[in-house]
Hints:
By secondary structure, the protein is mainly α. The chain has helices spanning 2-39, 45-104.
Amino acid sequence: MQVSASSSASTASSSTGASDIAKLQKQLRSLTEDLKSVATSNMDAKAKKEKVKLLQAQIQMVQAQIAAIQRARQQEQQEAQTRKAEDASIQRSKTQRGIFTLGSQLDTFA
């Protein structure tokens, strides 16, 4: 039961991460379009420079957020694989213990 609960929690967080990434990518596209439009705008050079600097900073922040979500998702996947491997190892050791103790429980009559 514990494995399925952690698997469903991991799936839920992965889908949340995916929707967050999609939103951030949409925001990134919007910022990139804004950056392109600044080049053709009627602003004076100083205002354009400041606007470009601001948009570039926002783009870097959004890219950093996307990277952080991707790292967190990757870490969750690694932790899930580790848990799965540990559970399999525990199950194997329980099975092996059961096999070795089976013979010790038999009585022999001659």
